[in-house]
Specification:
The chain is an alpha+beta fold and about 350 residues long. Helices cover about 25% and strands about 30% of the residues. It has three domains: about 70 residues, Uridine Diphospho-n-acetylenolpyruvylglucosamine Reductase, domain 2; about 110 residues, Uridine Diphospho-n-acetylenolpyruvylglucosamine Reductase, domain 3, CATH 3.30.465.10; about 110 residues, UDP-N-acetylenolpyruvoylglucosamine reductase, C-terminal domain (Uridine Diphospho-n-acetylenolpyruvylglucosamine Reductase, domain 1, Alpha-Beta Complex), CATH 3.90.78.10. The strands form six sheets. A five-stranded antiparallel β-sheet has the order 6-7-12-10-11. The protein has a four-stranded mixed β-sheet with strand order 1-2-5-3, with helices on one face. The chain has a four-stranded antiparallel β-sheet with strand order 13-19-18-17, with helices on one face. Strand 18 and strand 19 form a beta hairpin. Helix 4 packs across helix 5. The longest helix has 19 residues. The mean pLDDT is about 95.
C-alpha cells in the first residue's frame, strides 16, 4: 500500500531545536513496503530524500525541497538468547528512552546509562550514541537496513557498522544509502553496574546508594541529565553541539603546560579526549548569546534556540565558538549534529 505523502510540512515540531523550516514533501513510513513506495515516488519526481528520526540531532538552515522520510516501524521483542545475552529486536520508529525503560521492565538491563537520550531507535547507531561511560556499540548485536541503491534489506553486524566515537559507517560513503529498519541489542545476562562517571557516582552517593540496581542507575542518569541539559520541550536544542576533540599525547602535554586546568580524559590508544565544554567555557562563551541563539548557561556544549533563532543563527554561533576555541587553544571543534541546507545534508 502506498503511504500518504504530505506537502509543505512544518518541520519545527518534528525537531527538538524547533527552528523554522518546511519540507516540500513528508512521509511517515510504517513498514519496509511503505519506505520502498515512498522512495519510488520520490525517484519518479527526481527528488532528494532526507531520512528523519526524532529530529534531535538535526539543524535545518533552510526549507528542504525534497522528501523528508520518517521511518516509523514499530515493535519490540525478544528474538533469541545466547549463553551470555538476551537478543532484543526493536523497530526503528520506537522511541529510544521508552525502549530503555521497557527493557528494564522486562528484566533485561544494560541500556540504563543511555536513559533520556531523545530520538528514535533507528538513529541510535548513526552516531553510536553514548553517555555516562556506555555507547550503543557496547550493547549492539546487529541491525537490518534497507539499501536505497539496491532495494535489498541487509543485516549488518557490529564490525560492518564500523562504530567509532559519535561515528559509524552510516555517516560515510557506502553507508549513507542505508535506512535502518530495526536494531537487535545484545543485553547481558550477567549484569554489572557502570558507574565510572563522576556525575553518576556523585548522584548515587547523594542518594546513599552503594550497590545500585539497574533502575537506580536509570533514575540517577535521568536526575543528572535533567539538572544539566535543557529540556527540548522547553528550550530548543540538539544536545551537545560539538564532539569532544581527541588529540595526541604531545598536543595534550603542550596544552596542559599552557592551561594547567585543562579537562581531559586518557583514551585506551594513548590519545586524550578534551572536554569541549571546558574549552568553550574558557573561550568565554558559556551563557553568552549571538543574535537570537544562545549557549546554555549550565552546559557550554549545548547551543539553544530560546525562541526566535533560525538554523542560520545557530550555525553562526557555532562558527564563532569554533573560531575562538581555535584561536585560543589551536583545537578544532567538530559539530555533532547534521546541518541540513536547501539541497540536503551538508
Ligand atoms: C537534550 C538532548 C540530549 C542529547 N544527549 C545525547 C547523548 O547523551 N548522547 C548522544 O549520543 N546523543 C545525544 N543527543 C543527540 C540525539 O538525541 C541522538 O543523536 C539521537 O540518536 C538522534 O536520534 P533522532 O531519532 O532524533 O535522529 P535525527 O536527529 O532525526 O537524525 C539524526 C541522523 O540520523 C539519520 N537517521 C535517523 N533515522 C534513521 C534511520 N532509521 N536510518 C538511517 N538514518 C537515520 C538522519 O538522517 C540524521 O542523519 C541529545 C540530543 C538532545 C536534544
Amino acid at each position: 500500500m502506498s503511504p500518504a505523502i504530505q506537502t509543505d510540512v512544518d518541520l519545527a515540531p518534528l525537531t527538538t531545536l524547533g527552528v523554522p523550516a518546511h519540507a516540500a514533501y513528508y512521509c511517515a513510513a510504517g513498514s519496509e513496503d511503505e519506505i520502498r513506495s515512498a522512495l519510488a515516488w520520490a525517484r519518479t519526481r527526481d527528488l532528494q530524500v532526507l531520512v528523519l528520526g526524532g529530529g534531535s540531532n538535526m539543524v535545518f538552515v533552510s526549507d528542504f525541497a525534497g522528501l523528508v522520510l520518517q521511518p516509523m516501524l514499530r515493535g519490540r521483542s525478544l528474538i533469541g538468547e545466547t549463553d551470555a545475552h538476551y537478543l532484543v529486536r526493536v523497530g526503528a520508529g520506537e522511541r529510544w528512552h521508552d525502549t530503555v525503560e521497557w527493557t528494564l521492565a522486562q528484566g533485561w538491563p544494560g541500556l540504563e546509562n543511555l536513559a533520556l537520550i531523545p530520538g528514535n531507535v533507528g538513529a541510535a547507531p548513526i552516531q553510536n550514541i553514548g553517555a555516562y561511560g556506555l555507547e550503543l556499540t557496547d550493547r549492539f548485536h546487529s541491525l537490518e537496513a534497507f539499501d536505497r541503491n539496491t532495494g535489498e534489506v541487509q543485516t549488518l553486524d557490529r564490525a560492518a557498522c564500523r562504530f567509532g566515537y559519535r561515528d559509524s559507517v552510516f555517516k560515510h560513503p557506502g553507508g549513507r544509502n542505508l535506512i535502518v529498519l530495526a536494531v537487535v541489542f545484545a543485553l547481558p545476562k550477567t549484569w554489572a553496574p557502570m558507574t565510572g562517571y563522576r556525575d553518576l557516582t556523585e548522584e548515587l552517593g547523594a542518594r546513599s546508594i552503594a550497590t545500585p540496581s539497574p533502575r537506580d542507575i536509570f533514575d540517577a542518569v535521568i536526575a543528572v541529565r535533567q539538572r544539566k541539559l535543557p529540556d527540548p520541550a522547553v528550550v530548543g536544542n540538539v544536545g551537545s553541539f560539538f564532539k569532544n576533540p581527541v588529540v595526541d599525547a604531545a598536543t595534550h602535554s603542550s596544552l596542559q603546560a599552557r592551561h594547567p586546568k585543562l579537562v581531559s580524559y586518557p583514551q585506551a590508544d594513548g590519545r586524550y579526549k578534551l572536554a569541549a565544554g571546558w574549552l568553550i567555557d574558557q573561550a568565554g562563551w558559556k551563557g553568552r548569546a549571538l543574535g537570537p541563539a544562545r549557549v546554555h548557561a549550565a552546559q557550554a556544549l549545548v547551543l539553544t534556540n530560546p525562541g526566535d533563532a533560525r538554523g542560520a543563527d545557530i550555525v553562526a554561533l557555532a562558527r564563532a565558538i569554533q573560531h575562538d576555541v581555535q584561536a585560543q587553544f589551536n583545537v578544532t571543534l567538530d559539530p555533532e549534529p547534521i546541518v541540513v541546507g536547501a539541497s540536503g545534508e551538508q
